[in-house]
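FAQ

Q: What does a record look like?
A: Structure on top, sequence underneath. For example:
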């Protein structure tokens, strides 16, 4: 992962942001936001990004499942507050989609992440090659 030209630690890299409120329960005994909470913040942005893309098309049963996620923690994060999670598409594979994320507290990037999702047919319960119109939309979104 990370073999692309996008700097996920820079706010300018993203045009899509999902605001997330930090909950009191997101803290751990160290007094900062626990690493598991970062995964939930990124999941919220990932779901908005990819589901928002798929919702543009009429392909019943076409969905996506998470195959891999990597999170790099850059700074501590504390309650209370909010974060903006930037999300962008990075790469289209034959049956997969790689996306990148930056978690921002104000202008500071506190974490970056990349995930690989697999296009999935909910009826056959198997990975699938996405339809051409979905592939074209992904390529356009990657190009910016």
């Amino acid at each position: 992962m990370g073999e692309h030209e996008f700097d996920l630690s820079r706010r300018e890299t993203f045009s899509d942001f999902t605001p997330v409120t930090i909950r009191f329960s997101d803290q751990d005994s160290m007094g900062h936001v626990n690493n598991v909470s970062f995964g939930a913040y990124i999941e919220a942005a990932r779901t908005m990004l990819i589901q928002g893309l798929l919702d543009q098309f009429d392909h019943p049963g076409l969905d996506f499942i998470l195959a891999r996620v990597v999170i790099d923690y850059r700074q501590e994060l504390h309650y209370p507050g909010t974060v903006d999670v930037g999300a962008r598409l990075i790469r289209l594979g034959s049956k997969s989609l790689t996306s990148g994320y930056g978690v921002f507290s104000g202008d500071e990037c506190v974490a970056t992440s990349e995930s690989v999702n697999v296009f999935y047919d909910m009826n056959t319960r198997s990975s699938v090659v996405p339809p051409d119109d979905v592939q074209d939309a992904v390529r356009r979104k990657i190009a910016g």
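Q: Is there anything notable about this one?
A: Helices lie at 35-54, 132-143.
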